[in-house]
Structure formats: structure tokens, C-alpha cells
Fold:
Amino acid sequence: MAVYTQVDDEELIAFLATYDLGPLLSCKGIAEGVENSNYYLHTGAGSFILTLYEKRVAEADLPFFLNLMEHLAARGVTCPLPVKNCAGLALGRLAGRPAVIVTFLDGYSIHHPETAHCAALGATLAQLHLAGADFAQRRRNALSVEGWRPLFSTCASRAEEVAMGLRALVDAELDHLERNWPRDLPSGVIHADLFPDNVFFLGERISGLIDFYFACTDAYAYDLAICLNAWCFDAELRYQPDKGAALLDAYRRLRPLSAAEIAAFPTLARGAALRFLLTRYVDWLNVPAGALVRPKDPREYLAKLRFHQSAPDARVYGLGS
Ligand SMILES: Nc1ncnc2c1ncn2[C@@H]1O[C@H](COP(=O)(O)OP(=O)(O)OP(=O)(O)O)[C@@H](O)[C@H]1O
Ligand SMILES: N[C@@H](CCO)C(=O)O
Structure:
């Protein structure tokens, strides 16, 4: 359960009194997620999500995330809407953390996506990129190639606790990616964490997207590579070409990929695998005392990285000729 910060009843009631949402009826910690503390909030006005932002979210970035959700929702990409308090502010403070109430979205996440889900995701990702194209704010991706080596160096000496040979593999991969990382690809707002747990479905239709707290300005094709890694491997961590093709084809029907994006795709897929390998690795070794959280296994992304390292070019993903 991702609850790092416990909320005291009296504090919550006082916080809620600054909103026009009626009385508190219930508030329960949410079992999923690893980044922030999330609660289901039921008030006289209905169901909401209360989020207290934790370690990786800089308070200064919150206006970017909250404005982006409003921007996308206004352009038909269903996502939570920040609820404003009586002073007209979305961002508040609770239990010493920055806190926001957002609208509750119906739908459920798919734990084992099928080909049709990957196709639906591809189309929705392209819609998100197109809808974000006129979003005026920018946010640098702190978890892109420049951020990976400093992140790894915080606990590189413990790499062998997670997997034999991990330190040498990551060092060599960082060397490779720092030399070959593509620049100047078409860029704009990307979600950067659109894993199955952040996409809600009703049947085979996507009903909403959540968790925009890694959103940033970066290469669109990098977002696609993140999704390919998260959606198109089976439980034994084997790449599923039919799912990859469904994702990429549906995306390209709405936003065609340039030759440069296709040529860069294998490198982007390696970087996307390393990024989640590293954050999972750091979290695995640093579970805060008393936190109710189940860290995600970094070795899953080690296996995905190894797959991409063995891919000779973009044809592995059905791209190029
Ligand atoms: N707007 C919403 N409507 C309905 N449920 C939501 C909403 N926002 C969050 N949830 C629920 O809370 C859970 C955790 O939310 P979220 O993914 O934002 O947390 P997180 O800690 O940032 O997670 P992650 O590990 O994916 O970064 C979701 O899996 C979902 O069940
Ligand atoms: N989606 C991430 C966790 C949130 O950053 C992962 O699965 O590692």
C-alpha cells in the first residue's frame, strides 16, 4: 500500500472545511501505487482522490502537472481534474505535505493487457501527444539520460545485492546511452509513466488516464518506448511482437513517426528500460521505515533491457524496412 504519510482525522476535517465538498464521509488509504500517498475520499459531494505528494515530486512542478490535466481534459483526454478550494486554489497542504484533491475516474486497470488493449493505448497516447502540443508550460525531464548516472551513483555499490553483474552492466549501458542518446526528435508533453496501472478501461475502451506526476517535455517516441516496455512483454518477460505492433500501428495512424524517430527507437527502448530499472533499484534499496509500500522489482526491467540490447535494429519492433 502506498501510504507514506498518515493523515490525522482532525487535520483532514479542517483541510476539507476549506473546500465546498460537504462533510467527510470516509477516507481510506489506497493499496496501489508507489510514489505518493493516495486516499479514497468520500464526501457529501461524492467520490474524490486525495494525494499527498512525496519524495520525487517537487512542489514547484505541481502547477505544471495540475494545469496539464486541465489542458488535456479540455481537449478530450479524460484525466482527473484538480478540485479548487474556496480560495480558488487547487494546491493545499496537509500533514506537512503538498496535497491536492482530484476528481474520481471510473474504470479499472488491466493487469495483463491483450493486443486490443495495446492498440487502444497506442491511439490514446497519440491523442495525448496531439492534445498537449499547444500546452504552453515546459518541464525538463529530470529522469532522462543526464539524470541516470547521478541516480545510480547514489547506491551503485549495492548493485550486486539485486543481481550479479548489475553494476558493470549499468555502467556499460550508461556509457552507451550517453554516447548515442538521440537529440532533436519531435518533442512536447509526454506522460512518461503510462503503465497499465495508470490507464483505466471500461471493457476494451480507455475511460481515463491518471498519474501525471512524471509528465514533462521530452521526445514523443520516448513515451512510446516507455509504453512498449510496460505493455508488450508477457509475464515471463518475453517481448510480444503482436502487442508491440498493435501499440505502434495504432499510434502511427494518428501521429506518424519520422525516419529519425524510427531509427532512434531501439536506443529509446533501452533508455526507457534503464530509467525504470534505476528508479526501481533505488527504491528497492531505500524503503522508508514505516511506509506501507511494496517496491517494484528492478529485475523485471533488467530483463527488458537485455532484450533491447540484443535487438539489432528497429525492425524487431516492426518499424522501418
Ligand atoms: N482520479 C482517480 N480516480 C480513481 N482512482 C484513482 C485516481 N487516482 C488514483 N487512483 C487510484 O489510486 C491508485 C494510485 O494512484 P497513482 O497511480 O496516481 O499513485 P502513485 O503512487 O503515483 O503510483 P505509481 O506507482 O503508478 O506512480 C491508482 O492505481 C488508482 O487505483
Ligand atoms: N511505473 C513505475 C512506478 C512509478 O514511477 C514502475 O513501474 O516502476
